[in-house]
Amino acid sequence: MYKLENITKRFNGQQVLKGASLAVGEKEMISIMGKSGAGKSTLLGVMAGLIKPDGGKIIFQDQDITSLDEEGLAVFRLKHIGIVFQDFKLIPSLSVFDNVLLGIHPRRDVSKQEKARRIHALAEEVGLQDKLQEQVDNLSGGEKQRVAIARSLVNGPTVVLADEPTGNLDEKTAGTILDLFDRLHQHLSTAFIIVTHDKDIAQRTQKIYSLQEGMLLCT
Ligand SMILES: Nc1ncnc2c1ncn2[C@@H]1O[C@H](COP(=O)(O)OP(=O)(O)OP(=O)(O)O)[C@@H](O)[C@H]1O
Ligand SMILES: [Mg+2]
């Protein structure tokens, strides 16, 4: 479904990715580990179509992503990609409902009722049905990440890219977020790619990759 072939990327003379290759199947759940600075976030940025690689190919469902222009990439992201960040990237002064609502792409032709229906269903899925009107500021870290996960799913993506999604959470809460990913993975036809420093988290996924020297090894 998702194939990276020999991806290279350098920043200011620093060669970060040196030929990273990866194949992700439909509905797979994998993790990517690697030292700080190894290029994990860069790799996710490339996979999301947010960072243009210098070389190599990205094939997504038989479509060559590397040949798309900005407009084509925007459409690709909207249709296929959900992103979850370590620091949630929510708007603290807004409610849970409004934060998830903001994840629905404005160009999407979706009625107000359909948006509300979808947000309620996702809130239920992530266990926040009673907190929809709560201001995000008042939530715990684990709850905030649940909001961010709901937002990442609101356009029905093919794949969710999660960059250290448990990095700001204590061990127990991190476990509950992984439980949630597991459950979502079972319910939805979405693939999950999780970047993590945590071996215990990685071990819960189907495959563990390690980013070393700019290349991906399946461990
Ligand atoms: N936009 C950029 N401009 C210049 N250098 C960059 C840029 N983005 C990343 N880098 C450099 O590329 C290297 C890899 O960064 P990246 O953020 O991908 O690492 P990482 O594996 O995600 O690290 P961490 O575990 O700390 O999040 C780092 O040395 C970083 O400084
Ligand atoms: Mg990073």
What is this structure, in a nutshell?
This protein has 219 residues and is an alpha/beta fold.
Describe the structure.
The chain is an alpha/beta fold and 219 residues long. It has helices at 40-47, 70-80, 96-101, 112-126, 141-153, 171-187, 199-202, and strands spanning 2-11, 14-24, 29-33, 55-60, 63-64, 81-84, 159-163, 191-195, 207-212, 215-218. The chain has a six-stranded mixed beta sheet, with helices on both faces. Helix 4 crosses helix 5 (141-153) and helix 5 (141-153) packs parallel to helix 6 (171-187). It has one domain: P-loop containing nucleotide triphosphate hydrolases (Rossmann fold, 3-Layer(aba) Sandwich), CATH 3.40.50. Bound molecules: adenosine-5'-triphosphate and magnesium ion. Adenosine-5'-triphosphate binds at residues 11-12, 14, 16, 34, 36-42.
Q: H/E series, N to C? A: EEEHEEHEHHHEHEHEE
| Contiguous helical run count | 7
Shape: globular
Report helical residue fraction: 25-40%
Note poorly predicted spans: none
Total count of strands = 10
Intertermini distance: 21 Å
What is the typical, i.e. mean, pLDDT? 96
What's the Cα radius of gyration? 17 Å
CATH class, please? Alpha Beta
Spatially, the strands of the biggest sheet line up as 6-7-8-3-9-10
Structural class: alpha/beta
* CATH fold naming: Rossmann fold
Share of β-strand residues: 25-35%
Task: Provide the number of structural domains.
Answer: 1
User: Ligands in the structure?
Assistant: adenosine-5'-triphosphate, magnesium ion
CATH architectural designation? 3-Layer(aba) Sandwich
Q: How can the largest sheet be summarized? A: 6 strands, mixed
Mind telling me the CATH superfamily name?
Answer: P-loop containing nucleotide triphosphate hydrolases
